[in-house]
Amino acid sequence: MKPVTVLLSAAEPQAALFAEMIAALGCRQADNASSDAEALVLAEGGDIAALSAAQRELPVIAMPSQRRTAEKAGLAVFAVLSTPLFDSLLHSLRRLSAQLPGHYAENNHDIGIVAHSEPMRRLQQLVQQVAAKSVTVMLSGPSGAGKEVVARSIHQLSARSAKAFVPVNCGAIPRELLESELFGHERGAFTGAISSRAGRFELADGGTLFLDEIGDMPLDMQVKILRAIQEKCFERVGSNTTRSADVRIIAATHRDLPAMIAAGEFREDLFYRLNVFPIAVPGLAQRREDIPALVIDISEQLAQDGVGELRLSPAALASLQCHPWSGNVRELANLLERLAIMYNGEMVGFADLPEAYRWEMDDWQQPAIEDVALQRSTPRAKFSAGGIDLKAEVRELEIRRIRESLEYANGVVSQAAKQLGLQRTTLIEKMRKYGLANKC
Questions:
Q1: Separation in Å, CA 256 to CA 87, 253, 261, 263, 267
Q2: What CA–CA distance (Å, rounded) separates 341 from 345?
Q3: Which long-range contacts (CB under 8 A, 24 or more apart) does 255-264 make?
Q4: What is the pLDDT of residue 1?
Q5: CATH code for the structural domain at 5-99
Q6: Are the CB atoms for 353 and 63 separated by under 8 Å?
Q7: What's residue 197's pLDDT?
Q8: Distance between alpha carbon 130 and the CA centroid of its chain, in Å?
Q9: Does the CA dihedral 429-433-438-440 come out positive or negative?
Q10: Which residues make Cβ contacts (< 8 Å) with residue 159, sequence separation at least 6?
Q11: Are 311 and 87 in contact (CB under 8 A)?
């Protein structure tokens, strides 16, 4: 889902609740006076009369109680929310995003790159610029960051997309077999070669050859790869016949190749041959704004594969955005797969996350989503000589959040507790403490 700029019309406590959900989905809330909104979310207490003429033209996502009011006012109701609200808002915004102009790549291809964050938007632009050219591309970035996804996107957007995309992990193949894997071999070329076999270069003829972890390639093999790239020809192992292949090379590595060159571990001439168009793929910690959309895409794939239906609460999703993600997108995918198996069809709350993934929002020093609405709903304290009553403010905040969670969960205490990351018994105790037990 590409980010949608949302105009929110609601009264408290709905306004704070929807602002949090909008932020958790990676979307931006527009200011009431702004003109860049792409959708209107109409919740309880929304003031239709205050809308400008331009805002009345926006597609509306409405609470059920607001549908008739919106239609009588001549608004275009795009979707009506249902419970659970978070899931319903997610799918409504996702459907709307697909229909908004300018929310796909310029050539209308879905190139598979989630690009809400500024680093990924820059990367997406580079991909679109280089895809149509046949130059060699060098992708750098940490393991698990999605370098193969970027390579496939370049291939899909190129004139070679009808031909094969052939990946080969240079670090995963034993060095004595790597030459045969890349260039093929003839029958009897070595023990076990019972028949002739085409290599990856031949299989990729007319298409793209993706050399993953090129930094792990042995030095003696680097010489042969350099010749194949320069001259576009090679020989199979055990053959004197020169073969040619029209192959575009995309290489990738997580290593520091200039440092390896200085240490004599990587050929400088091969580096410059590969590094024609370098693209740095950021780690997940540098693109936190992309996490909500990545969660959606991965969850949908898990459901299609029959692993399980995964649903994350806003609190759980916000916690994932605070995690450092040393394993990058691969770590996120593995976590979501585990959660889909454990909580198939259930709402995964903050407390359901493995302990290592439970983070408070204060742990996130560089927020990925600049959410003006949340800043307005929690104003800065106005200190004075008399100070502030912190206990009273914490009490007021707890009461408000408990009421919002109960409303979100339609009064089901166990579901509300999941939203808050609390045990059911703990929430009941707090409800009794604040006199809320008889109000839900």
A1: 42, 8, 9, 11, 13
A2: 9
A3: 255/213, 255/215, 255/216, 257/140, 257/215, 260/215
A4: 58
A5: 3.40.50.2300
A6: no
A7: 87
A8: 22
A9: negative
A10: 132
A11: yes
Which residues face 248 on adjacent strands?
208
Q: What is the pLDDT of residue 380?
A: 47
Please give the Cα distance from 161 to 179 (Å, whole number).
Answer: 26
Q: What 8-state DSSP symbol labels residue 294?
A: H
The SS3 call for residue 9 is strand
Nearest to 328 by CA among 359, 303, 294: 294
The CATH number that domain 118-281 falls under is 3.40.50.300
Q: Residue 272 is inside which H or E element, if any?
A: helix 268-274
Q: What is the chain's length?
A: 440
Query: Are the C-beta atoms of 309 and 340 separated by less than 8 Å?
Result: yes
- What pLDDT does residue 387 have? 64
Report the pLDDT value the prediction gives residue 386, as an integer from 0 to 100. Answer: 59
Interatomic CA distance for residues 292 and 282, integer angstroms: 17
Cis before 84? omega within 30: yes
Say if CB 419 and CB 314 are below 8 A apart: yes
- Architecture in CATH for domain 286-433: Orthogonal Bundle (1.10)
Domain with CATH 3.40.50.2300 in the chain: 5-99
Q: Is 151 exposed, middle or buried (0-12, 13-18, 19+ CB in 10 A)?
A: buried
pLDDT at 98: 65
Low-confidence ranges of the chain (pLDDT < 70): 1-2, 98-112, 360-389, 437-440
Domain with CATH 3.40.50.300 in the chain: 118-281
For residues 322 and 364, the answer to whether their CB atoms sit within 8 Å is: yes
At 98, the amino acid letter reads A
Q: pLDDT digits over 374-384, tens only?
A: 333 344 455 55
3-state class (DSSP) for residue 140: strand
For residue 24, what is the enclosing H or E element?
helix 14-24
Rounded-to-integer distance, Cα 401 and Cα 431, Å: 11
H-assigned helices in 83-167: 85-99, 118-131, 147-157
- Separation of alpha carbons 128 and 123, rounded Å: 9
Give the model's pLDDT for residue 176: 82
The reported pLDDT for the residue numbered 35 is 72
Closest CA to 254 of 275, 284, 228, 280: 280
Give pLDDT, residue 357: 94
- Residue 417: name the closest of 25, 406, 407 by CA: 406
Q: Match 């046949």 to its residue by tokens.
A: 134
